[in-house]
Specification:
Elements: E1 7-13, E2 16-21, H1 32-46, E3 53-58, H2 69-72, H3 80-99, E4 104-108, E5 111-113, H4 115-122, E6 125-129, E7 133-135, H5 150-158, H6 160-169, E8 173-174, H7 175-181, E9 186-188, H8 193-205, H9 209-222, H10 228-243, H11 246-257
Parallel strand pairs: 2-3, 3-4, 4-6, 5-7, 6-9
Antiparallel strand pairs: 1-2, 7-8
Length: about 270
Amino acid sequence: MIEYTTLRVERPKPQIAVAYLDRPDRLNAITFRMFDEFAALQTEIESDPDTRVLILTGSGRGFCAGLDLDQAATLPAMSAAEMLTAQESWARSVSGFQRMTTPVIAAVNGPAAGAGLSLALAADIRIASAAAKFNAAFVRIGLSGGDLGTSWALPRLLGLGRATEILLTGRFVDASEALRIGLVTDVCEPDDLLDRALEIAERIRGNSPVGMALTKQVIQTNVDASSLEAALSIENRNQVLATRTADMREALAAFREKRTPRFAGE
């Protein structure tokens, strides 16, 4: 097990990991070290065949307040080359959650600002506490509203017009609006958030790991498919691959025998 200093990882249910951003005194603002630990977490989860779902949430009353302002203050002192190298590394560490084969759920328990918004967008599913709110805080500190994947993900979720307005203004989107516009799929009371996330995670882990990985892949590929034919070719490929797995044979046998399948990820 990896020893984290900015994250806390728990396993409250079999095959489900919950990773808490663990700087509650700073509303879980991201440090350069936390970016590194995001990448380490992804490696740990992906290399563990017994972990089928990852939940991301925050300790305390915030999800993630974005980049820690003390660290943001050091950015202008970097050379352009240093900043580009760092920026590319940070972008990889956040977008890495989307690239994982393991499904990722963001349980947004409070403010998700700037890089916190980016982190939520990198998850496959977002649910929110009624106390959650979202904003592209980058524009509030003199940066572009497109950072760590926001300019790619937000228009695909909300449409170009709505995403543009949110990214240009940096205004807050509260939980009820987030649900209405499709930024999140569910809103619940703060005390119920983790239970709701675990409920969704348990439904996902009941499916075959290979099937879930292929589903993530086909969604992410076909959202930008150039044509129906291109999309169908990926779907057809994936279905052929899935029929070669032991897990599909197990799923069919379990369905016929009216029992819970025992998936091996093979």
